[in-house]
Amino acid sequence: MKMMSGAAMVVEALKEVGVTHLFGYPGGAVLDIYDALHAQDDIKHVLVRHEQAAAHMADGYARATGKTGAVLVTSGPGATNTITGIATAFMDSIPMVILSGQVPSMHIGEDAFQECDMVGISRPVVKHSFLVKKAEDIPMAIAKAFYIANTGRPGPVVVDLPKDIVNVQDSHPYVFPDDVTMRSYNPTLKGHNKQIKKAVASMLKAQRPVLYVGGGAIVAEAGAYVTQLAELLHAPVCSTLMGLGAFSSVHPQFVGMLGMHGTLEANKTMHNSDCIIALGSRFDDRVTNNVDKFCPHADIIHVDIDPASISKIVNAHIPVVGSVDKVVLQMLELLADADFTNQEQKVADWWQQIEEWRSKKCLQFDQSSQVIKPQKVIQSLYEHTKGDAYVSSDVGQHQMFAALYYPFAKPRRWINSGGLGTMGFGLPAAMGVQFAYPDAVSVVVTGDGSIQMNIQELSTCLQYGLPIKIISLNNRALGMVRQWQDMNYKGRHSCSYMESMPDFVKLAEAYGHTGIKVDHLDDLDDAMARCFATPGLVFMDIMVDQNEHVYPMQIKYGAMDDMRLSKTERT
Amino acid sequence: MRRIISVLMENAPGALSRIVGVFSQRGFNVDSLCVAPTDDESLSRLTIITQGDDKVIEQITKQVNKLIDVLKIAELTEGPHIERELMLIKVGNKTELSRAEVKRNVDIFRARILDVNANNYTIEITGTSDKLCAFEDVMSQCGDIIESARTGVCGLARGDKALRP
């Protein structure tokens, strides 16, 4: 039996579960762990500039790879600073483990210096948490934390480590478990056969089927099966914001993102469907619009690994609990015997209708404008990256433009905060992606508002030489807030403008990077080419139309397909 | 509608706060909550009285069941079940008449007097919540209620049905 200190156990156990990168920031309560980290080379520690960014980096790393992101922070403010990052991961079901330092056990509850009840304060936004009380329990706690984080519906797990148990001076027996089993935690992966039969019968009967694919399909790596199913049924496919890339956005059967800023054809297809096959999606309010008017003609098949997501918002006619890959595979096995010779003909009318909606070209925008349109920037980005970049996004108009105008052909390429909508997510997430894939093109699409919420990480980028390309759609305003104010508050722009904006080019340069400002449409293409030809981090400060709105957009309280198509046109 | 939900969970630190958290986070009601270790000391059993229609109860059950510490959950009110609650109540009685009246009602309700003082009785009563409320009413009529404490409901399903790990 190996004897070692609590701090060494933390590092050993992290190696054991396969951690390659640890995003963190030192402080009093975790100095012992940092000392143990110093003595090894297997785990690369990334020193951030703010703990929130550490959580987002681990998150970006996890979204791009499917592996569990790992974070190490000190007690008190170190821990509380991660909360937004943890909540972001929680809402989007991202596997992450946060190791937080804690004051020594004997001082817990005394309001000691840098004390904070991390298990308590994080409780509503974690999948589970551990307060480790004995050094001997460290390996098991870490093993369980990683197991819980990345099985079932993934999510963040906090491991709180009091300083006395990680003390480098003491020695304890180290036993890492061969295998983790928990009698109270056994996620259901395979679907119930009876439910699958029902689901398949309903699909085969359908005249107007549609696949509604969500983030669960990406988590389960189910893209290939989902594509097979869609092709067999010859059904249109729409995707949630979180599901983009699970089914290729350039596939002819793809009708676009659905929901609040979905395409007209996606929302029309959903609304008029007689059979919705929901795969790893959760009928979020940003999808359904008014639930009472939601898809009145459809039988709803809802596949999700989380039983609590099923029939939470919209009642599922055929619920199937299980992971999307396993369940769709079970469906395909049943469908192997079915006769599909007439399938294409059966859905011919349906496709004719969909083509009519498509022909409205709801994503058109003013091409003659001399002011740079944000949509144009995203299209240019798509061309210059050949549609193959990892695109991390912040939150706001630019996020929707990126989701709509950058078709993702592969899963895990679109990295955004969908559920919590966290501004400041983009840059650190793109950094996490770049650490995971040093040779990949990692792009951030952001705006002048969002980028300033974690801009300090430009310093971390310099330290680790991350060649991230930042595409900032600068409209000198909080675009999405301004859009809502235009629509719902008679154009009263209360606090949605930005005064005293920094010179982003100089700022990038001050941090040791390259900055490029683009004022004129004619320069856009060249500047974009220069951005990708320049080694290292490039900050593109692109002056876009301040008055542009994101369309289409669902009309509040309406059905899915009640939409504004432009400032003047409605469905 | 009043529902009784029974939860079997790990007898671990923080488990209770997680369950209570689900109720407050998701806006579910808790009328009463009763929790203690079971015959197997590694497990705790928790009984919650809540209000809600079928949809709400389905969500409560699923969300609570999702917690890592929770092994099993069942709604007792779904089938035949037994429920009991215990109340301790201190009743002041200044007159001889009041003392006699309280004593008589204690017998009628099959309650027990646990502590006797010159000016008050402390009484124990077990039963359904309704019975406890009825007794409380009667006591307020024949004496002065000084204080009372109730345990909250605990219950089991009738017959062979059981909540086991």
Q: How many helices of chain A?
A: 22
Q: What share of the residues of chain A does DSSP label as strand, in percent?
A: 15-25%
The number of E-state strands of chain B comes to 9
Tally the structural domains of chain B. Answer: 2
CATH topology of the largest domain in chain A: Rossmann fold
End-to-end Cα distance of chain B: 28 Å
- Tell me roughly what share of residues is in helical segments of chain A: 25-40%
Mean pLDDT of chain A: 97
Which regions of chain A contain 5 or more consecutive residues with pLDDT less than 50? none
- Based on secondary structure, the structural category of chain B is alpha+beta
**What can be said about the biggest beta sheet of chain B?**
5 strands, antiparallel
What's the SSE pattern of chain B? EHEEHEEHEEHEE
CATH topology group of the largest domain in chain B = Alpha-Beta Plaits
User: What is the radius of gyration of chain B computed over CA atoms, rounded to a whole number of angstroms?
Assistant: 19 Å
Question: Given the C-alpha coordinates, what overall shape of chain A results?
Answer: globular
CATH architecture of the largest domain in chain A: 3-Layer(aba) Sandwich
Look at the helices and sheets of chain A and give the structural class.
alpha/beta
Characterization of this structure:
The complex is a heterodimer of chains A (about 575) and B (about 160). Chain A is of the alpha/beta class. Chain A has 3 domains: about 1-175, Thiamin diphosphate (ThDP)-binding fold, Pyr/PP domains (Rossmann fold); about 195-360, TPP-binding domain (Rossmann fold, 3-Layer(aba) Sandwich), CATH 3.40.50.1220; about 375-550, Thiamin diphosphate (ThDP)-binding fold, Pyr/PP domains (Rossmann fold). Chain A is built from 22 helices and 22 strands. In chain A, the strands form 5 sheets. Chain A has a 6-stranded parallel β-sheet with strand order 3-2-4-5-7-6, with helices on both faces. In chain A, strands 11-10-9-12-13-14 form a 6-stranded parallel β-sheet, with helices on both faces. Chain A has a 6-stranded parallel β-sheet with strand order 16-15-17-18-20-19, sandwiched between helices. In chain A, helix 16 (about 375-385) crosses helix 17. Chain A is globular, with a radius of gyration of 24 Å. The mean pLDDT of chain A is about 95. Chain B is of the alpha+beta class. Chain B has 2 domains: about 1-80, Alpha-Beta Plaits; about 80-150, ACT-like. Chain A, domain 2 (Alpha-Beta Plaits, 2-Layer Sandwich). Helix content of chain B is about 30%, strand content about 40%. Chain B is built from 4 helices and 9 strands. In chain B, strands 5, 6, 7, 8 and 9 form a 5-stranded antiparallel β-sheet that branches. The longest helix of chain B is centred in the last third of the chain and has 14 residues, at about 130-140. At the A-B interface, strand 6 of A face helix 1 and helix 2 of B. Chain B: Belongs to the acetolactate synthase small subunit family. Chain B: Pathway: Amino-acid biosynthesis; L-valine biosynthesis; L-valine from pyruvate: step 1/4; Amino-acid biosynthesis; L-isoleucine biosynthesis; L-isoleucine from 2-oxobutanoate: step 1/4. Chain B: It catalyses: 2 pyruvate + H(+) = (2S)-2-acetolactate + CO2. Chain B: Keywords: Amino-acid biosynthesis, Branched-chain amino acid biosynthesis, Transferase. Chain B: Its EC number is 2.2.1.6.
